[in-house]
Amino acid sequence: MKELKNGIRIISTDLGYGNSKGSNIVIPSGVICYDTEPVFSGNILEYNGKFYRIGEGHKDFIADKSLDDDFYILNLAVIARELQRVGIYDAKVYLATGLPLTWVRTQRESFRAYLMKNKIVDFKFNDADFHIEFVGCSVYPQGYPAIAERIGEFKGTNLLVDIGNGTQNILYIQNKKPIESKSWTEKLGVNQLIIRSKNAVMDRFGTVIDEGIIEQYIRFGKADISEKYMEILHENAVGYASDIFSTLQKYEYNPELMKLYIIGGGGCIVKNFAEYDKERVEIISDICATAKGYEYLAYMQKMRK
Question: How many angstroms separate the CA atoms of 168 and 240, rounded?
């Protein structure tokens, strides 16, 4: 969060299908709506007469994030968490957010309108009252903002891939400049691996495996389960990591001619399960990197004005 001289605070929200991030916080993108106050407390957002439990599960993939209220609620939750970190509950906010690369062209204005549909919003989060006045919103393409501050390093040909829970965004950067005509969005997010792994376990053992176990294995390369289940998870993770590079090769990725930069939650899959040249591939492990990039770009935009 950055504060401008007029008291406006720039707050970034990277609203993903697996996790929603601010520049300093991460929450799972699960939203459960209740008409009455839930029995158990913790991560409850109260808005417009409804109660929303934030952070259980994840958001199912939809090709337009404005089709329901979930991402609107998640956006408020991220803002609340960022403000609460510094003890602020009443703020004028300039929102910096993003969409998958190829969605920005067609959905930028509708997504901006969706997030800004109420200029003034009053809500509660974990029993704290918040009063937010939205003064503007910038919608950026996912991926590129994560490296915007260090774009000067990107000489020659570089390939940036952002592997989220729902999508994989691919962008060429040539001599420090992003090439819009060479950008693509593939539905090959981490959730595809989770689905494959659940199906594989069911097919072989007739057992339902909890997604949390799969996510733990993906992140750390180990989980507290028996060896026979571990073998299936390993087999599918290696196959998915191979599919990531097969997809990149479809878009003319050649490690001998370019460097590869990987951001997003899927970076840990490449790190743990893929074979690659560590001299030619950099995995940016900061899951908040894109949100920080949104904030940086919005701040620079405001300073230029």
Answer: 12
CA 35 to CA 31: how far, in whole Å? Answer: 13
Residue 57 has pLDDT above 90, yes or no: no
What are the CB-based long-range contacts (under 8 Å, 24+) for 111-119? 111/65, 111/66, 111/139, 112/137, 112/139, 113/66, 114/65, 114/66, 114/71, 114/72, 115/71, 115/72, 115/75, 117/72
The answer for residues whose C-beta is within 8 angstroms of residue 59's C-beta and 6 or more apart is 16, 17, 18, 29, 30, 31, 70, 71, 74, 165, 166
Give mean pLDDT, residues 44-62.
Answer: 91
- Tokens representing 71 are 């991402």
pLDDT the model gives residue 176: 94
Q: What is the dihedral of CA 215, 216, 220, 224, to 10 degrees?
A: -140
Q: DSSP E strands: which ranges in the chain?
A: 2-3, 9-15, 19-21, 26-28, 31-34, 44-47, 50-54, 90-99, 120-125, 128-141, 157-163, 168-174, 177-186, 259-263, 281-283
**Residue 41 pLDDT class (50, 70, 90 cuts):** confident
What average pLDDT score do residues 137-146 get? 94
Render pLDDT for 99-115 as a digit per residue (tens, 0 to 9).
Answer: 998 899 899 999 999 99
Q: What is the mean pLDDT of the chain?
A: 94
> Tokens 């417009």, residue?
48
The pLDDT assigned to 58 comes to 80
Q: What are phi and psi of 228, to 5 degrees?
A: -65, -35
Q: State phi, psi for 158 to the nearest 5 degrees.
A: -135, 150
Tokens of residue 85, six digits: 């970190």
Instruction: Tell me if 281 sits within 8 A of 262, measured CB to CB.
Output: yes
